[in-house]
Design a protein that fits this description.
425 residues; alpha/beta; Rossmann fold; 2 domains; seven-stranded parallel β-sheet; 13 strands; 45% helix; 15% strand
């Protein structure tokens, strides 16, 4: 079986969910099918990551399409663009701060600004340039695969260029219209317009595929309820075999709080800002500092960093931080399933999450996770874990067993493979 995967996210390094969720399947599938990848890259950094992925999984044929200018020209162009943006932002900020300083000079006014997902650019409307389309489709025709799989919404509209006769699957990491609907803003003419506009186009493109794979039954239901006509499968992504780590009760401790995720995925920003409002009180009562793992901007770090709220950046070995930690997922926006929860539980860290944050994993409140949707309840759940280490250990053990049983690479790769066989039968 010849399977071609086209992705807008380079599946390496393993520093975010959108990469890990691809890599865990690729690692196993490379030995079960003839697997090829086409990866458009848009800068030198992505190019290096794509080459690293190619070297890491040597049984996969990887075609990298460079969609950027030579380094020198690109750097000059980016510098000019950044300088122009900086001048505009600086002018706005200076005016804003000078005005607000008169009202309350000690208050950090940016801390009250919440994230609005409706302001985000929706990538399914991006036009793919002619050079990329031509090179990509020429390589598809050269490979002549039995099946084509497209990953991530950045290339959802590539369906308009793919050969008609080859079965095509779209793997939906996060339903865009569901993410918009999950942010409970006051209804307005604009919010109604944007949700309907995005939903109609997203569903239109999805209906052009032969099948859609979601990572949860909840996301599958959202598509079924909106009249998707093709086959829909719900198969979550697994946890890497070597990421599971059992901890004996005698070695189990709670010494810190961690949040895992980069800033550029906007629901993470919303989550961190929301949790920050209770982090200091938790620290004063328990002594637990909060550590933010992942890439975050200097602006955000300067706004929120403190003795009790520490930004660690990207770390190669996440187990150093999951060890002796409470892992939090105060996610209030989005769809799909959270890599941060799966890997925390696989590494024996108890998790406190919102209902939306743990959606689709199949966890049960007070059995293998603690769930809270308002900020005071979220704080209370953390105190509960801190004050009762034996109950926290019991919760972690139940969660570890659940993830090991339901999210193994072997089990879920075989489920993915059975979908391929069904579509080709």
């Amino acid at each position: 079986m010849k399977v071609l995967i086209i992705t807008s996210h380079v599946p390496y390094p393993l520093d975010e969910g959108g990469k890990i969720s691809q890599y865990v399947f690729a690692e196993k599938l490379q030995d079960l099918v003839s697997l090829s990848y086409i990866i458009p890259v848009y800068n030198e950094r992505q190019l290096q990551f794509a080459n690293d992925f190619k070297a890491k999984l040597s049984n996969i044929d990887v075609k990298i399409i460079k969609c950027f200018l030579p380094a020198q020209k690109e750097a000059k162009k980016l510098k000019q663009k950044k300088n122009y943006k900086k001048r505009i932002i600086s002018t706005i900020y200076n005016f804003y701060y000078s005005f607000k300083a008169k009202e309350n000079p000690k208050k950090n006014i940016l801390k009250s600004i919440e994230y609005n997902d409706f302001d985000r650019h929706i990538n399914i409307f991006n036009e793919i340039n002619s050079t990329t389309i031509n090179e990509l489709i020429n390589h598809v025709e050269f490979l002549h695969p039995d099946l084509i799989q497209v990953e991530h919404t950045g290339l959802l509209n590539i369906i308009e260029a793919l050969p008609m006769k080859i079965p095509k699957i779209f793997v939906h990491h996060e339903i865009i219209f569901a993410r918009l609907e999950s942010q409970k803003l006051a209804e307005s003419h604009y919010t109604r317009y944007k949700i309907k506009f995005v939903k109609d186009y997203e569903l239109f493109l999805l209906n052009k595929y032969n099948a859609v794979i979601t990572f949860s039954e909840e996301d599958k239901k959202k598509l079924v309820n909106n009249n998707i006509q093709n086959k829909i499968y719900a198969v979550p992504f697994p946890v890497l075999d070597d990421s599971f780590r059992f901890i004996p009760e005698k070695d189990f401790k709670i010494e810190k709080i961690i949040f895992i995720g980069p800033e550029y995925h906007e629901p993470n920003y919303d989550a961190v800002v929301w949790f920050h409002s209770i982090a200091e009180e938790i620290f004063k009562i328990t002594g637990l500092k909060t550590y933010i793992i992942g890439s975050w901007s200097h602006k955000t770090i300067s706004m929120y960093s403190s003795d009790f709220f520490v930004f660690e950046g990207y770390v190669k070995d996440i187990t150093i931080y999951t060890n002796n930690s409470i892992s939090i997922a105060p996610i209030r926006i989005g769809s799909g399933i959270r890599t941060k929860i799966l890997y925390s539980l696989a590494q024996f860290a108890p998790v406190v999450s919102t209902q939306l944050g743990c959606e689709g994993i199949g966890l049960t409140d007070c059995s293998n996770i603690l769930i809270a949707d308002d900020i005071e309840s979220f704080k209370t759940k953390i105190f509960d874990l801190f004050n009762s280490p034996s109950e926290a250990y019991k919760l972690s053990k139940e969660a570890f067993n659940f993830i090991q049983e339901n999210f193994s690479q072997e089990k879920l790769t075989q489920e993915r493979l059975s979908i391929y066989k069904e579509l080709l039968s």
